[in-house]
Structure formats: C-alpha cells, structure tokens
Amino acid sequence: MNILITICARGGSKGIPGKNIISLAGKALINYTIHIAQKFSEKHNAKIAFSTDSEAIRKLAEAEGMFTTYIRPPHLATDTAGKIDTIVDLILYEETTNGSKFDYILDLDVTSPLRTLDDLEESFQHILNNENALTLFSVNPASRNPYFNMVELNNDGFFSLVKKNNDGTVITRQSAPEVFDLNASFYWYKRNFFDLNLKSPITDKSLIYLMPHICFDLDHRIDFEFLEFLILNNKVDFFI
C-alpha cells in the first residue's frame, strides 16, 4: 500500500499572522502535525510530503526532520488558492520524483491538531474497507442542527430553517436527523479522486470518521488560548 501524507502550511495567514509556527503549550503548532505524521509514517512506510511558501516554516520543519525540494508555486500561496489544487500539485511532484503513483493520500491540517494515532489508524481501515468510497474526513457531533436551530435568509427577505421541516416531525433537537461538524483535522483520499477534477473532499461517495474526543480548528486567537489552557491544565485526556 503506497501512502502519501501531505502537510500544507502557508505562511501568509492574515487572520493570525504566522499561526502555523505559533507556540502552543511550548511547542510550535506545526510540530504537532509533523510528529503524528512521522508516527503514522513509521508504521505504514508512508511518504510525508511538505508544502509551504514560507522560509521560516521550512526551517522549522527541517529542524523536525522534514526536508523537501518542493517549492509551492506563487499562485498556490494566495488567499484564494484552493486546498485541493495545492494537494494535487504536491502529489504530482512527489509521483514524478519517486516514479510511482500513490494509492491513498492522507492530508493533515496544521490548524486542527487534536488527533491521535488511533484516529488515523481506525479511519484508514474505514476507507480501506469500502471499495466505493472516494474520501473520508474527520468530524464531531454538531452543536447546531439545520433541521432545528439554524436559519437562512429566503428570497422574500424572511428567515426559515436551513433544512425544511415540512412534516412537523422535528419538534426537539433530539428528534432532528443527526448532523456533524467537519473539524478539519484530517482527510483521506483515494488516488483516483484527484483524477476527477473535484474541488471539494465532500462528494457523493464520502465517509466520515466520528472522533471520540474533542477536536476543533484554530481559526481565532481565542482558540489558541483555549486549547493552550486545556493542554497546560491536563484537560486533554489523550496524547497529541
């Protein structure tokens, strides 16, 4: 089984400048992802591929044993560049360099580090066991439900539920269909996904991996402060 692990870390974040290398509980944020990738790689003999446009990120990654000759093209280092296009460019570079195609791609998002080796192992088995699946992504139970307490603007200027409850059966949160939040931690792709010119990991042949623990994306400064508090006060009851 030929597996490629991709880690994409752009240097130009405007929301939180330099967020990929911000110290989180005494450890650079990107190092959490590098270290879990290395553990999975050791067990499965997977290749780790690294994509960045930042020399500071590159040097920090090299200090953790991540060396690469790949240079991310400028058009894939903008705010509008899609993640799928970035991964495709990295895959093609690695396949050309190595002279062979990969079977599975595991993309690890630097800004959502609350994942375990067990998460990666179990999710890999899920997609291995489903021959028709194209992708798998990590999720958590959603705190809001489009059938019950999420609304959107209609064409007439009024607001209604995102998912219409025409038959009136959903009258409590518990009776609403179960929905999930993508936590952006990791995505599994079968290699043929990237031959279909799709731009989203969410397809009509996608699986989910429901995390049995807390996980969230670090989008705002308060997210960093909250996670650091959890780590330093031993509130995260699993190893990351």
Structural topology:
Blueprint lengths: L2 E7 L13 E2 L2 E2 H16 L2 E6 L2 H9 L19 H16 L5 E5 L8 H12 L6 E7 L9 E3 L5 E3 L18 E11 L15 E5 L10 H12 L8
Parallel strand pairs: 1-4, 1-5, 6-10
Antiparallel strand pairs: 2-3, 5-9, 6-9, 7-8
Q: Can you tell me about this structure?
A:
With 240 residues, the chain is an alpha/beta fold. A hairpin with a 5-residue loop joins β7 (151-153) and β8 (159-161). A 6-stranded mixed β-sheet has the order 4-1-5-9-6-10, sandwiched between helices. A two-stranded antiparallel ribbon has the order 2-3. The two termini are 25 Å apart. It has 2 domains: 3-141 and 179-232, Spore Coat Polysaccharide Biosynthesis Protein SpsA, Chain A, CATH 3.90.550.10; 143-178, no CATH class. It is 27% helix and 21% strand. The model has no long low-confidence stretch (mean pLDDT 93). It is globular, with a radius of gyration of 19 Å. The chain has helices at residues 29-44, 55-63, 83-98, 117-128, 221-232, and strands spanning 3-9, 23-24, 27-28, 47-52, 104-108, 135-141, 151-153, 159-161, 180-190, 206-210.
